[in-house]
Amino acid sequence: MSAEPLWTLAAMADAMRAARSGALPAVVTGISIDSRTVAPGEAYFAIKGDVHDGHAFVEAALKNGAALAVIADSHRSKFSGDAPLLVVPDVLAALGDLGIAARARLNGRVIAVTGSVGKTSTKEALRRVLGAQGKTHAAVASFNNHWGVPLTLARCPADVAYGVFEIGMNHAGEIEPLVKMVRPHVAVITTVEPVHLEFFSGIEAIADAKAEIFLGLEHGGAVVLNRDNSQFKRLQKAAEKRGIKRIVSFGTDKKADARLLDVSLHADCSAVHADILDHDITYKIGMPGRHMAMNSLAVLAAVSLAGADLVAAALSLAGMQAATGRGARQTLELPQGTAALIDESYNANPASMAAALNVLGQALVGPRGRRIAVLGDMLELGPTGAELHRGLTDAVTANKIDQVFCCGPLMRNLWDALPSTRRGGYADSSAALAGEVAAALRSGDVVMVKGSLGSKMKIIVTALVKRFPGNAAFDDVRVQGDPAV
Predict the structure, then answer these.
(1) Residues 61 and 157 both lie in one domain
(2) Are the CB atoms for 428 and 415 separated by under 8 Å?
(3) Is the pLDDT of residue 376 over 90?
(4) Which CATH number belongs to the domain containing residue 164 in this structure?
(5) Contact indicator for 48, 92 with CB cutoff of 8 Å
(6) What does the pLDDT average to over 250-274?
(7) Does one domain contain both 115 and 217?
(8) In the list 74, 202, 228, 484, which could disulfide-bond 262, CB 3.0-4.6 Å?
(9) What is the mean pLDDT of residues 7-23?
(10) pLDDT tens digits, 311-333
(11) Is the pLDDT of residue 477 over 90?
(12) Whether 49 and 127 share a structural domain
């Protein structure tokens, strides 16, 4: 059965003000920027990236079934006259124009999510709970930048009931143009933390950059803010200055509109008791971690503000699962038994690192087992990088981490600050550390691997899984309950 049409050729060409060339189809069924994964019937956009120019892969995309390719007019002479092409001055700008057109035809409710930590997990939670109530569209991955947001918009069918968009940044001024494309009815800021400090004067400047999300909010829209965060009042004032009337807060603070009353953490889930906009509700989240419980408050507040069913959404959270690199779990089959792997290798900053160490610290290990953290550099922290890495010693101690393996020049600061009893091993790179970690594992251990994407901690995860193949989503590691808040 063929895929449903996403765009008619006429609407697509008109939105991008594109010239037509070759034998073009009447419709396209999807949008792709990767010639390797483009599906038959999709339009391939030849975007020029930091490493590769997509124009080099146009012929491969067409050979793999792309219905047409969108190219820059400066490259037109490279392709045959009968190639199915839409020709534009700039391909990325054309993708943005198509995204704007997609938003213009959308009648569903739109939610935008930003924040220093928790954007993707919050977006995925919203996708799950809203998807159970109506046709929902969200990015397939962390497509939250200058090409990811317009791509996600351009892929959005016209008939969705809900659209969920993640918006990221590492410099001031990056959120504004993206949120003005998305034009959300509800904007969520999960938290503001000291990340990307290399590009900001301080956390207040980060808060101001996150507040750019208010600039695209639809008239009469609502914002959801973390009341426990140090930047809450700054963000609240920024929203009020923009004339936003509906400001909903979440957290443990007694004044929070979505308030965490109690949380109990278990092996593969968290049980939450909360007051969500004056609704007393108890629900289960299919992932452990206090930070997940906190994010769920924002999710349910946003769901309610978008007009969806709050109780049904809370029930849907039970099916949440961690994504690869963001807390996904596996059992490792060792010669003498099993160990547990927590894959947090996708990214890291001080806040997410502390949260991951907290989850590891709550794990109940097997007989003679240990809690082992394998940590790579947290990047883009600027002059404060060394201090913030050393500062992880407090989280290591508080969460009773038995051994810490470190890699990278920044993590050397943590390694030097650790007592010798907690030192597992150090190497300059993840590739050099992988073998040492594998050799150290024993039955009953729980090992968590985390670092910024640039520190390439996935290499260690891959090495462990290859050496000790086991089962995904292990359920034999229990965690201690979190006291009432």
Answers:
(1) no
(2) no
(3) yes
(4) 3.40.1190.10
(5) yes
(6) 91
(7) yes
(8) 484
(9) 97
(10) 999 999 999 888 788 888 899 99
(11) no
(12) no
The domain boundary residue, chosen from 319, 340, 356: 319
Structure-block tokens of residue 19: 């010239």
State how far the alpha carbon of 356 is from the alpha carbons of 38, 223, 314, 413, in Å.
35, 27, 24, 19
Query: What is the distance between the alpha carbons of residues 416 and 270, in angstroms, rounded to a whole number?
Result: 35
Give per-residue pLDDT as tens, 244-253.
Answer: 999 999 999 9
302 and 339 together in one domain: no
**334 φ, ψ (degrees, to nearest 5):** -90, 160
- Total domains in the fold of the chain: 3
Average pLDDT, the chain: 93
Of 287, 319, 351, the residue at which a domain comes to its end is 319
Query: 42-45: which pairs have CB atoms within 8 A and are 24 or more residues apart?
Result: 42/66, 42/67, 43/7, 43/12, 43/67, 43/68, 43/69, 43/70, 43/86, 44/68, 44/69, 44/70, 45/69, 45/70, 45/91, 45/94, 45/95, 45/151
Collect all residues with Cβ–Cβ distance below 8 Å to 33 and sequence separation of at least 6.
Answer: 44, 45, 47, 54, 147, 151
Question: Are 77 and 112 contained in the same domain?
Answer: no
- Cα 170–chain centre separation: 14
For residue 2, the model assigns a pLDDT of 54
Domain extent at residue 40: 7-88
Q: Does any domain span residue 485? A: no
Q: At 416, which CATH number?
A: 3.90.190.20
Q: Is it the case that residue 474 has pLDDT exceeding 70?
A: no
Which band of pLDDT confidence, cut at 50, 70 and 90, is reported for residue 473? very low
Residue 480 is assigned to a structural domain of this protein: no
Do 181 and 214 form a contact (C-beta atoms < 8 A)? Answer: no
Q: Do 306 and 178 fall within a single domain?
A: yes
Cα dihedral 384/387/393/398 (nearest 10): -60
Residue 96 inside a domain? The answer is no
Q: What is the pLDDT of residues 198-241, one digit of tens each?
A: 888 999 999 999 999 999 999 999 999 999 999 999 999 999 99
Same domain assignment for residues 313 and 216: yes
Do 149 and 196 sit in the same domain of this protein? yes
pLDDT tens readout for residues 131-173: 999 999 998 888 999 999 999 999 999 999 999 999 999 899 9
